Amino acid sequence: MTPFHLQHKTILVTGASSGIGQQVAISISEMGANVVITGRNEGRLTDTFKKLKNTNHQQIIADITNESDLQQMIKVVPMLDGIVHCAGVVKPFPIKFISKEKIKETFTVNYEAQVELMAQITRNKKLNKQASIVFISSISAAHPHKGGALYAGSKAALESFSKVIALEFYTMGIRSNCIAAAMVKTPMYEYSEQNASKETMDEHINKYPLGVGKPTDIANATIFLLSDASKWVTGTTITLDGGFLLGGM
Ligand SMILES: NC(=O)c1ccc[n+]([C@@H]2O[C@H](COP(=O)([O-])OP(=O)(O)OC[C@H]3O[C@@H](n4cnc5c(N)ncnc54)[C@H](OP(=O)(O)O)[C@@H]3O)[C@@H](O)[C@H]2O)c1
Question: How much distance in Å is there from the Cα of 130 to the middle of ligand 1?
């Protein structure tokens, strides 16, 4: 059988109520995984749930920045063979407008909650041997943009955290990797579009030799990282950018 399948694997997907997380949940269910999806918005999470292939899935409404939601989630999640951390926010600010509150707003979702989730999952022994952890990072972690101090910083911190997981859990065969994505068409992309002029966005998009990404582009790479096909891959970041970082356009 192909090593790319996800049969007999139970995978938790955060941020599954929208965009990349929704597509990841759908695509991994198509590859045979049992999926546990989580998000805050009940209507949109249920919409994702209805789109999952096969049965044996579970949905948990939770704000991952809320301590009691997180604890409740840890209690009800089954033993996991993988986690895909898709929950995240993007809030661009020029440095002079940054405040403690704004730092907290971004870092609580994009970094703290994901670290806390991993701490609680491992403390409660909810990870099976050979499990695979995937974080959805951004090319801005290594290639920051103006206004991206908080977002780029939070993703850079996440990439370091992923490497520490790889080092602390390799004896159990547990792997951890990141996907650094460039622009992908999701509601987050629409939010960026509202915050920049159409000209700025068009100019940016024209720099992608293969066009901007689709959620399925991220989901397909996630399948690889969750599957046994990537059993020799850990502590690294896969860049998915449609050729944007080549810089030749
Ligand atoms: N789109 C891009 O161009 C792009 C590029 C690089 C990296 N990424 C990363 O990919 C990930 C997904 O982005 P996306 O484009 O799919 O964004 P999106 O459509 O805005 O989805 C964000 C998801 O995060 C969840 N979320 C946010 N705050 C949360 C909280 N406190 N508790 C629980 N869930 C929370 C949202 O849940 P609710 O809606 O239910 O609140 C939603 O499901 C993010 O980490 C983002 O940084 C995106």
Answer: 26
- The tens digit of pLDDT for each residue in 132-177 reads 999 999 999 999 999 999 999 999 999 999 999 999 999 999 999 9
| Domain spans in the chain, listed from the N-terminal domain onward | 10-181+214-239
Candidates 90, 100, 79; CA nearest to 15 is: 90
pLDDT per position as a tens digit, 72-113: 999 999 999 999 999 999 999 999 999 999 999 999 999 999
Topology (CATH level 3) of domain 10-181+214-239: Rossmann fold (3.40.50)
- C-alpha to C-alpha distance for 209 and 238, rounded to whole angstroms: 18
pTM score, two decimals?
0.97
Q: Which residues contact 26 (CB under 8 A, 6 or more apart)?
A: 48, 51, 52, 53, 219
Q: What share of the chain is helix, strand, coil (3-state, %, to 5)?
A: 50, 20, 35
Of 66, 179, 186, the one to substitute when testing ligand 1's pocket (max ligand atoms within 8 A of C-beta) is: 186
130: three-class secondary structure by DSSP: strand
Say if residue 192's pLDDT is above 80: no
Q: Is 92 in the pocket of ligand 1 (CB under 6 A)?
A: no
Give the three-class secondary structure for 5: coil
First-last CA distance in the chain: 41
| 19 Cβ closer than 6 Å to some ligand 1 atom | yes
